[in-house]
Amino acid sequence: MAEAYIVAAVRTAGGKRGGRLIGWHPVDMAGAVLAEVVARSGIDPRAIEDVIMGCVGQAGEQALHVGRNAALASGLPASIPAVTIDRQCGSSQQAIQFAAQAVLSGTQDIVIAAGVEHMSRVPMGTSVAGMKPYSDKQLARFGVRGFSQFTGAEMIAQKYGYDRAALDAYSLESHRRAAAAAGRDDFAEEILPLEIEGGIHTQDEGIRFDASIEGLGGLKTLIEGGVITAGNASQICDGASAVMVVSEAALKAHDLTPLARIHNLTVTAGDPVIMLEEPLFATDRALQRAGMSIDDIDLYEVNEAFAPVPLAWLAHTGADPARLNVNGGAIALGHPLGASGTKLMTTLIHALRKRGLRYGLQTMCEGGGIANVTIVEAL
């Protein structure tokens, strides 16, 4: 049976809105992680057959095929093709799955999956500013005036019974775990240092080392009468990330050292109104297809788009909270949209290997009610 392996994985440290990475053009930031993932693998760059780049805000400086532009900025041979994809927040997780499918099918042997989002220089919503992305027919089908991730988050909190106190408590734990991981230098191996004005950017800028339940409790809700705040939602973030996926033949031919084997690829879709609930059901399907139970998984990365999502996922799956987002999640570390898929995979693989653990599961909610699940085995 064909196999797909990850042989290198890298990310930038996240930058806050208008923060340390403001001077980096997104094309150059993405190009930097492409060059680094090749350098870490030790492979001859001429052997790479494709670059698959996830990006949500494909406008402004991220327009006109940011994947190809990043490949050209990286210094890789101009002969290497690229494609830019959008599966909303799961864009670069889907890039991993497309890369793995190419390898498993035998059509390609060496593919880079990557993602980029510079939310400071290309603000969220830039690509639809002044436009109407949803048709009247589409809206009428679901009986809504629009689709909103914020509404979806509020719906999940209400459906699963999470009040403001529960969401803030979860968020505080995310910051505590991220701060502890940063203090242990757990992210050091996975982060590509970037030169910035006045120094080097090596630490995720969003971590609140002094986070408190009082501080979180003092924030206003995003919707009047709701429970979602900026403190229990993911942070706007600038960043890029990349992983290299190869076949077993490439592993041997190029004398590569695998970090992980890809064990399962799943993507499902459901209700576009509640929108963010699909990771629960996608996880069920992934485990069933893999012949595994949730107890077989050593670590889980469930994207913290909003605190109700991982909490509902825990309740639905019966997973162990101690294994979830062990180094903190997007509430503390930031959610650079199209870059988050390969970012989480990078963190998951390094966390598994650092702890001597075997199986990891990654999932995230995505616009339109879609969810990806990827299961890997650390080697």
From TrEMBL:
Source domain of life: Bacteria
Coiled-coil boundaries: none
Transferase among keywords: yes
Domain Thiolase C-terminal: 256-377
Enzyme class: transferase
Stretches assigned to the Thiolase N-terminal domain: 5-248
Entry EC no(s): 2.3.1.16
Catalytic residues in the record: C89, H335, C365
Entry-linked PROSITE patterns: THIOLASE_2
Molecular function, one GO term: acetyl-CoA C-acyltransferase activity
Sorted UniProt keywords: Acyltransferase, Transferase
Record-stated family: Belongs to the thiolase-like superfamily. Thiolase family.
NCBIfam families in UniProt: AcCoA-C-Actrans, PRK06504.1
Name of protein: Acetyl-CoA C-acyltransferase
Provenance organism: Sphingomonas gei
